[in-house]
Write a structure and sequence with these properties.
The longest helix has 14 residues. This protein has a domain of 45 residues. Helices cover 28% and strands 9% of the residues. The model has no long low-confidence stretch (mean pLDDT 76). It starts with 11 loop residues before the first strand and ends in a 9-residue tail after the last helix. By secondary structure, it is α+β, with helices and mostly antiparallel strands. This is HECT domain-containing protein. Keywords: Ubl conjugation pathway.
Length: 65
């Protein structure tokens, strides 16, 4: 992370502890953009697992029981 601009770093969340680490971004707009990016593009939760595309196929069409 030392070689990367602070504004390019993403926040880190720890879901087990309900906490989030935010870098000292240069402004609120950068912080908001990085948070949005992380929320919409995160594919792992604490590196526990990563679902393959084949494992999620059809979830959008599943019936609610």
């Amino acid at each position: 992370d030392a070689d990367v601009s602070v504004d390019q770093q993403l926040p880190r969340a720890h879901t087990c502890f309900f906490s989030i680490n935010l870098p000292r971004y240069s402004c609120d707009n950068v912080m908001a953009e990085r948070l949005k990016y992380a929320m919409y593009n995160c594919i792992e939760m604490d590196a526990d697992f990563r679902l393959a595309d084949t494992e999620t196929t059809g979830w959008g069409n599943a019936e609610v029981v």
